[in-house]
Backbone:
């Protein structure tokens, strides 16, 4: 069943809200803002940064809470509407859409003239605060930075900040030395007449220094910051206990690179008086910006130059990522074969997810999942970001769909794949919706487009067949993916939201259209694809033409494909992909005859139907 708050849990969280209100009264504040982010402003946070979850019970990856003296509101986007209602139920929490009715609107209506709203500047970006400050001003109130996070003040057993060991990332997999990367980024700073860059994004830090860490459960980040000067000199601010002897020796060998403790960062920022300093508008906190401005530095809020370079994978990275996807595909095929034999068999969402984790963990160079597996049966699958627990997992049964969205962190790559299967016989509606999603998935994968095209321009490719029936999905169609880094990586994406970031060769992005019928079933089909130059280029092409190469290798669910809705070309594309899956993965699963038989059946050519229905 879906995740719900227990009675005891609800009572405890109500007590936490009351404790926070006591802090508001003590400090003469009308409200306090609690975002999902922590001091490093990451999507995934360590236990010490789970302030929103601890206070509200909501475990989604995006949200904001505003707690006032008498009212408390939780804001989430369309992905989490039902989950938020279940985990943080009324009347303790009011519920609002994060984008359509944002916290700024709520504050403007709730505040009175002269009141103060507190916030922790370490966990907000300047951009996130703009609308909130304006709303407070319109109400005659004031947004007030605090030197203490009020959640921390009442969280007596808050976990300690993580101190995972740092490891070196092999240059043979990275395809470029750290010294070369630092020189390139420093040159970009000089060309833009900037004196320094504050490296605040954890993935930029990992990429720039060719290191990885263990501070987060599913993402190999080492939490810290760095200051890169246009001269090429870099100071790394990281807790010394994270750096073992080999890492210390490696860093010591790097020219113009020094290591300092995190508490030395404010003093280093104060030394930048008069300097023009680039601060990443997406990952730098208001605290960092105010520290620099207070020191007399000229803050340049813009893009971290590491972000785009990191997104365009080197040839070595792509070669490694392809091999990681082969091993991952073999694990997924073993799982799908097992699932077809065993489900329902007394299993639930939790136990089948554990089986997938067990099979994936056998793979060479495997480190951990790339995120918490979304293992969702029936109504659970209608929640795009559902997360089962051992206690609340829904039992599997015949007559509905099962969706599994999962991935692995391998030393040579990060994977992310979603497949849907069926237990028993699917309904006609399930088959139609699955096929429409598949058609959009295919249309995006085979798109060709001129250099300079953004993901938002390609997004309709994936939605067009659903739109014909007047249905859609609320999440983006695709997100960037790192190389043994974050499973969600910028700056590129494929979504309705406008983007000015053009897709470039070497960028990896997911292709994951879906459909969700609340209370009944959900469908999502996801492969990772990489942007490539089309070869050969179209005859007479006036611009460089780009396309996609599919990295993910696993069969689609043929029992859910209504072949009559596919065009002849779409059938051929599915058959060609299945043939590739079979030929590449067969050697890796040859030890298990049952898996061999499953793969043979799952990738057999589709039966020829009567062609696509009009408009579909």
Residues:
């Amino acid at each position: 069943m879906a995740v719900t708050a227990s009675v005891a849990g609800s009572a405890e969280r109500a007590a936490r809200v009351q404790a926070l209100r006591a802090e508001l009264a003590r400090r003469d504040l009308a409200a306090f803002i609690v975002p999902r982010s922590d001091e490093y402003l990451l999507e995934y946070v360590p236990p010490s940064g789970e302030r929103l979850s601890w206070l509200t019970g909501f475990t989604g990856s995006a949200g904001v809470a505003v707690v006032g003296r008498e009212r408390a509101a939780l804001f989430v986007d369309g992905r989490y509407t039902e989950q938020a209602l279940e985990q943080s139920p009324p009347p303790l929490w009011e519920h609002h859409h994060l984008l359509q009715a944002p916290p700024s609107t709520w504050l403007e209506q709730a505040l009175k003239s002269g009141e103060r709203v507190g916030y922790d500047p370490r966990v907000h970006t300047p951009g996130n605060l703009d609308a909130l400050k304006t709303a407070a001003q319109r109400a005659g109130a004031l947004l007030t930075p605090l030197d203490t996070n009020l959640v921390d003040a009442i969280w007596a057993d808050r976990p300690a900040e993580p101190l995972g060991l740092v490891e070196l990332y092999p240059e043979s997999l990275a395809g470029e030395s750290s010294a070369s990367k630092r020189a390139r980024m420093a040159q970009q700073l000089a060309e833009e007449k900037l004196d320094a860059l504050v490296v605040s994004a954890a993935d930029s830090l990992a990429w720039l220094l060719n290191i990885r860490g263990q501070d987060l459960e599913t993402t190999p980040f080492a939490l810290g910051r760095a200051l890169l000067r246009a001269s090429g000199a870099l100071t790394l601010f990281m807790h010394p206990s994270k750096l073992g002897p080999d890492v210390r020796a490696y860093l010591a060998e790097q020219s113009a690179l020094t290591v300092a403790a995190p508490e030395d960062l404010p003093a280093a920022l104060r030394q930048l008086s008069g300097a023009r300093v680039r601060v990443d508008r997406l990952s730098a906190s208001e605290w960092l910006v105010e520290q620099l401005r207070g020191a007399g530095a000229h803050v340049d809020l813009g893009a971290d130059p590491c972000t785009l370079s990191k997104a365009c994978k080197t040839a070595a990275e792509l070669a490694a990522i392809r091999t990681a996807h082969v091993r991952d595909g073999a694990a997924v095929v073993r799982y799908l074969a097992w699932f077809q034999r065993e489900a329902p068999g007394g299993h639930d969402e939790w136990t089948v997810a554990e089986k997938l984790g067990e099979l994936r963990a056998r793979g060479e160079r495997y480190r951990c999942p790339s995120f918490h597996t979304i293992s969702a049966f029936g109504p659970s699958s209608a929640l795009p970001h559902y997360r089962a627990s051992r206690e609340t997992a829904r039992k599997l049964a015949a007559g509905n769909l099962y969706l599994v969205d999962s991935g692995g962190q391998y030393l040579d790559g990060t994977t992310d794949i979603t497949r849907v299967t069926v237990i028993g016989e699917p309904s006609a509606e399930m088959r139609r919706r699955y096929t429409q999603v598949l058609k959009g998935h295919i249309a995006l994968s085979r798109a060709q487009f001129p250099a300079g095209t953004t993901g938002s321009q390609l997004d309709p490719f994936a939605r067009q067949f659903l739109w014909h029936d007047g249905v859609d999905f609320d999440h983006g169609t695709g997100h960037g993916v790192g190389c043994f880094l974050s499973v969600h990586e910028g700056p590129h994406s494929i979504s309705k939201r406008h983007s000015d970031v053009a897709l470039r060769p070497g960028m990896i992005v997911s292709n994951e259209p879906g459909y969700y019928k609340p209370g009944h079933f959900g469908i999502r089909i996801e492969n990772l694809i990489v942007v490539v130059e089309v070869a050969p280029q179209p005859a007479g092409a006036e611009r460089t033409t780009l396309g996609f190469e599919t990295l993910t290798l696993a069969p689609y669910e043929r029992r859910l494909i209504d072949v009559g809705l596919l065009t002849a070309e779409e059938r051929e594309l599915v058959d060609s992909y299945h043939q590739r899956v079979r030929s590449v993965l067969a050697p890796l699963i040859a030890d298990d005859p049952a898996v061999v038989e499953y793969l043979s059946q799952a990738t057999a050519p589709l039966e020829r139907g009567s062609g696509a229905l009009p408009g579909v």
User: Anything to note?
Assistant: The first strand starts at residue 31 and ends at 35.
